[in-house]
Amino acid sequence: MAGIEDVAKLAGVSTATVSRALSGKNSVSAKAKAKVENAARELNYTASASAYTLATGRTRNIGVVMPFVDRWFFSVILEGIETELIDHGYDLTLYNLSGGLEQRRKIFFEFVNRKRVDAFIAVAVKPTEDELKQLAIAGIPILGLGGPIPGARTVAVDETNAGKVATQHLIDLGHTRIAIISGTIGQEMEFHQPNLRRQGYLEALKAADLSVKATWLAEADFTMAGAYIEGKKLLQDRGSAPTAIFAASDEMAIGVIMAARDLGLSVPKDVSIIGMDNHDLADFFGVTTISQSARAQGTNAAKHVIELLDRLDPNQPVNIEENEEWPIELVVRTSTAAPTQK
Predict the structure, then answer these.
(1) C-alpha torsion 10→14→20→26, nearest 10
(2) How far is CA 102 from the centre of its chain?
(3) CATH 3.40.50.2300 fits 59-157+294-327, yes or no
């Protein structure tokens, strides 16, 4: 059976270079990495995971914690994370919190102590102070996606600004009767995205000196079906209906589009609809949206964590507070236009 020395000899490099190349380290040139990979393939050599762990104390495994795995946004972020980790020779262990508080306690207070992962990526999960302390004791860094986490590194969209940008687009088109279908306020989202997106909507209307009707503040559950019901309620009385709707996710925007069509209304002639996310189906349905590039968020998170592990200083705290704002982009399609009625 071939060993690391055989791979090094065939590739014409040192054993240290072989180790770095096969572990996905960025310090190896592309040319040297290709030589090592070709030699390893020719010799049918696979680096020993147990030997690596014994030598470095690392598992080359990243834990990902998220509240759901069966919703588009989370599955797409997970895809971006996993693809990047695999490219760099890392495994992934997925923890979802659908099992409630007891499941969460096991993850942060039992599994963490087993040191099965080198780092955590938390998607729309906000670790508590006690959970962060436990990670610090275990020497495990964490990166959060979704909002600020006191005492930890995060990358997140400015949700309030996203709500403003979406609403301002409708205002710029000339709409004055603008409704919102937000996520359920105070719902399961730990960073209060529904509240923040609605706050941005309200701030944009206030800045434009536009009034808000209580009946135009609708809530749904971030699903097409939930928004379909709320969309019908908003649009069924044409005398009091808004001419534009900001749906706080693209899935909800699609639900409203279907509701409008079932009521015999034309989008965007009778009602303009804007969503958020840039869902894979948004282009098919012509949804104008606020893109937050979910796959790229996942890819970026994985890159961040890999780079962080490469430069961790044992003399410094494993987790420090750093907040990076993730960019958004207005993507205009066919679901929004100037109002034909005012």
Answers:
(1) -100
(2) 24
(3) yes
Q: Which residue has the tokens 């990243």?
A: 62
Domain 159-292 bears CATH identifier 3.40.50.2300: yes
Asked if 59-157+294-327 and 159-292 have one fold, the answer is: yes
Q: For strand 119-123 and strand 61-66, is the pairing parallel, antiparallel, or unpaired?
A: parallel
By C-alpha distance, which of 81, 92, 99, 107 is closest to 294? 81
**Do β-strands 142-145 and 329-331 pair in parallel, antiparallel, or remain unpaired?**
unpaired
Do residues 182 and 218 touch, judged by C-beta distance below 8 A?
Answer: yes
Cα angle vertex 78, ends 76, 80, to 5°? Answer: 75
The per-residue pLDDT for range 241-297, each reduced to its tens digit, is 999 999 999 999 999 999 999 999 999 999 999 999 999 999 999 999 999 999 999
| pLDDT, tens digit (0-9, with 9 covering 90-100), for 147-189 | 999 999 999 999 999 999 999 999 999 999 999 999 886 544 5
What type of residue is 243?
T
